[in-house]
Amino acid sequence: MKLRHFTALALPFFTAALAGADSFEFKDAFSRTGAFNPNGEITLENVNGSVEIRTWDKNEILIEGEKSAKTEEELNLIDMKIDVSTSRAGIKVRLPKRSSGFFSGGGNIRAAVSFRLTVPANAVLAKISTVNSSVSIEGARGVVNASSVNGSVRATGLAGPVSLETVNGGINARFDAVAAQQKLSFNTVNGKIVVSLPKDAGVQLHSSVVNGKVNCEFPIELGGKKSGKNLSGKIGDGRASLEAETVNGSISIEKQ
User: Fold this and answer.
1) What is the mean pLDDT of residues 70-76?
2) Mean pLDDT on 170-191
3) What are the tens digits of pLDDT across the range 19-45?
4) How far is CA 6 from CA 3, 10, 150, in A?
């Protein structure tokens, strides 16, 4: 999924949303836990608010967080659905329009929801997204698909197929292992991409920037003409694939 067409409008909305979220005084914490399969599937769609995911060795899922809003009425209007079974967890937040008031202007309620999830390490993070904030993931060993529009995306302790995307923000990914046929994808518009790989990693690298440069700490067998803005070739045995793309920012492939 390419997110570039959001760029022009996303940043001003992001700034306004975060400025409001800092001053939200009406809050409501929530927590839910339950049995969960080691490779269960998780989807989370948020609007305003950060998403943090950590892992443990339990066959359980823990969903914690906090709803906040400018007014008590708006706090009660936050539409949050959490649907959990032993094999799947689906979480979705919707912020409805303000229906009345001189200053409403037909805009969404002034509210945010932050999430902290603890899940089995091999759980499938099929879709983890927020619009106006950051995503942070630690210790995920299975599939990871995570995105933001206005915010950074950071993931460490990775060992499976990964796709990380944002528009206005940086991407930082650190891998403990890279297996054969594994696909790694990183895409932003306004931000830096940093990918840290084990020293014995093998990938087919395809990377490009528009306003920035590409740096790779690994020896690479070039698959095309090398330039400061494009770098493609084989690292090690090339057993996996790694694609990285940004417009305004640099790309750095680092060796652990």
Assistant:
1) 96
2) 98
3) 455 569 999 999 999 999 999 999 999
4) 6, 6, 10
Torsion of CA 225, 210, 146, 174, to 10 degrees: 60
Three-state secondary structure of the chain = CCCHHHHHHHHHHHHHHHHHHCCCCEEEEEEEEEECCCCCEEEEECCECCEEEEEECCCEEEEEEEEEECCHHHHHHCEEEEEECCCEEEEEEECCECCCCCCCCCCECCEEEEEEEEEECCCEEEEEECCECCEEEECCCCCEEEECCECCEEEEEECCCEEEECCECCEEEEECCCCCCCEEEEECCECCEEEEECCCCCEEEEEECCECCEEECCCCEECCCCCCCEEEEEECCCCEEEEEECCECCEEEEEC
Over residues 78-89, mean pLDDT: 98
CA distance 41 to 134: 21
Those residues whose C-beta lies under 8 Å from the C-beta of residue 227, and which sit 6 or more positions away, are: none
pLDDT band at 3 (very low <50, low <70, confident <90, very high): very low
Q: Where residue 72 falls among pLDDT bands split at 50, 70, 90?
A: very high
- The one-letter amino acid code at 11 reads L
**Rounded Cα distance, 74 and 83, in Å:** 23
Q: 88-94 and 124-129: which strand pairing?
A: unpaired
Tokens describing residue 238: 């090339």
The mean-pLDDT minimum among 11-25, 38-52, 76-90, 134-148 falls in 11-25
Determine the Cα–Cα distance for residues 217 and 177; give it in Å rounded to an integer: 17
Q: What's the angle, vertex CA 93, arms to CA 89 and CA 97, rounded to 5?
A: 160
Joined together, the tokens standing for residue 66 give: 């906090």
